[in-house]
Amino acid sequence: MKRRVLARQGLFAAAAAMTLAAIPIAAHAQQAGRAITIVVPYTPGSGPDILARLIGEEVQARWSQPVVIDNKPGASGNIGTQMAARSAPDGNTILMTTSPFTNNASLFKTLPYDPVKSFDPIVLVASGTLALTVHPSVPAKTTQEFIAYAKQRSGELNYSSPGVGTPHHLAMELFKLQTKTDLKHIPYRGSAGATQDLAGGHISAGFQVVHVALPLVQAGQLRLLGVASMERVPAAADVPTLDSAGVKDFDVPIWYGVLAPAGTPADILARYNTTLNEILRSPQVVEKLAKQGLVTKGGTAASFGAFLKGERAKWEKVVTEAGIAKVE
Predict the structure, then answer these.
(1) Residue 273 CA neighbour count, 13 Å, CB half
(2) How far apart are CA 297 and CA 8, in angstroms?
(3) β partners of residue 208
């Protein structure tokens, strides 16, 4: 009898051990049975939205799990970002965002999220390149000629951007600080108006995304002086970097990345990072992003986290030194 009791106890212990060992597997299985929501704090058709849909399709195919894109635009991305920050940290909600994610911390008096503390980084997805462009009525053919021209007409020239705090706006403010020039900012509500008025001659200069500027350059409506990256852009290989033109260390990428609400389990973050890196290495994805003027990135979550901290510190300094008023 005693042997039977011990045998039963042994069976119960083994069953308990198997049950405990199965808990993480069951947790993953539960996650795998639910839809993944990718929150995009911008409108459909925007850069983050295009990337979220591309990545969403790839994740859905690899994990056999439905993926939903939830566009929550407004307040320079703050509305959707706040919603993502408050979501359950279970891996079923992630955020696809872009440069204002860190910039907004310097531009708003209060922010409904902390770009470092409210999220766990997953991966840097891609980056686009800005370029310094001028209307052909501006006689400058090079960056140094433009700097000299702007200094001769201090405060007279204007520049456009898609809005206060956008990468285009901050890039020009950084350019002004480094070159000691003075141009008047004309903010627009979106890229279309800012680009159209620059191409139409109502605006003298502005930073434009390279693949947006190139057709206008080819049509003779814009002149491209330099790219805001440390390396030349293949699509505009004959255009020098601003760094090589004398504006040292001028590197202002428009970046796109994926994050999860803070407290998401490490194994779930690792699973996302591995899968998204696989997706970003696939030739068809590299080609699709290249057509959008984007370069695939990838890498570790830790490197993305360090990048975010660096971006926040960099633009806090620019906003302070440029005297940009914070939004209420």
Answers:
(1) 21
(2) 56
(3) 131
As a whole number of angstroms, the distance between CA 328 and CA 145 comes to: 38
pLDDT in tens, 48-96: 999 999 999 999 999 999 999 999 998 889 999 999 999 999 999 999 9
The CATH 3.40.190.10 portion of the chain extends over 129-236
Q: Cβ distance 187 to 164 under 8 Å? A: yes
Q: What is the second-level CATH architecture of the domain 37-125+255-322?
A: 3-Layer(aba) Sandwich (3.40)
pLDDT tens digits along 237-291: 999 999 999 999 999 999 999 999 999 999 999 999 999 999 999 999 999 998 8
List the beta bridge partners of residue 94.
38
CATH topology of domain 129-236: D-Maltodextrin-Binding Protein; domain 2 (3.40.190)
pLDDT of residue 192: 87
List own/partner pairs for 198-203 with CB under 8 A and 24 or more apart. 198/133, 198/135, 198/160, 198/222, 199/135, 201/135, 201/137, 203/135, 203/158, 203/159, 203/160
* pLDDT greater than 50 at residue 33: yes
d(CA 119, CA 117): 6
How far apart CA 298 and CA 256 sit, in angstroms, is 10
Delimit the CATH 3.40.190.150 region(s) of the chain: 37-125+255-322
